[in-house]
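Bug #77: duplicate submission created two jobs. Keeping one. Sequence:
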Amino acid sequence: MVDGFAGDRYAAVRAAFAENLAGGVDVGAALCMTVDGETVVDLWGGFADAAATRPWQRDTIVNTYSTTKTVTALVALLLADRGELDFDAPVARYWPEFAANGKQGVTVGHVMSHSAGLPAWREPMRTEDLYDWEKATALLAAQASDWEPGTACGYHGLTQGYLIGEVVRRITGRSLGTVLRDELTGPLDADFHIGLPASEEPRVAELIAPPDGPPPELAVTDLQLRVATNPGPEVSQVNSRAWRAAEIPAAGGTGNARAVARLHTVLATGGVAGGRRFMSETGCRRALDLQVAGRDLVLGMPLRFGMGFALGDQLMANPGTLYWGGYGGSLTIVDLDARTTFCYVMNKMSGAVADLRGLGLAMAAGMV
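Kept job's structure:
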């Protein structure tokens, strides 16, 4: 059963969403779209657990893995638009210790575009170490880049959030999750959390691990192996209170499709959301500035990265489109030309690098 609504123009989206649930492609999921800041699709259905005992409710939330990165990028773009953060500046301007081991030339833009050469830690890391902000960031500050920054992209699966988050902390004196709450999710009443309060635990859907575990194609080269396994959190750990409570800004966000779509209306509508101006239109479009392009050294596929998002100018219906998704299948698209946002989240995870569920729904919506 599917709850929520979809305007007549989006009947095909509702039908595709319902078919995924009815056919077992999804166990529980949610989908939201906005146009010009107004919600045009808001759907949810299925179950929040593998045993199918808890219906997926309107306010069910779930870990979104790397869809979290799009929200983290929005925080950085907000600070840059205010003049507090310069993407062209060295990271070491804000975080002096980061200059160690020849990294004095690594810019914030390199970090935003996965081209800083720090896709994984060199020192052995356990999942528990991700909950220790000081340790995780200090190790990254101390190590050398794996390639010349800015010359190639290599997906910073977990590290990007700590790198951006520490720059944000040095600038504002607040953690990234706190800035997000104070400046964006609070004012927009968006149910998304980087660092989930214990009071919200009963609403969290259980992630259902893919049958074959993480995709083997992520562990071929030494670099890919480090990204995939150092650490490689099991889904059982991601389902834990410890993971949800920690601030893991690249993969630890907990929320629903409605919240992510609402947050990204800031970018899609030129900086105005909920009747309030958050950013300038120029600051929003800064996300579209191409930083690096080519075959990603970690994911092994051609990608074009702007500021915190992949660029969809060669994939999507409109050139001014940003996108990214999370391991398991979640997906976010922000079309600045059509002033549209799209977000799909789910709990039944796919082990494939390219999950087509979200893409199929976006195709039904005419975004691809």
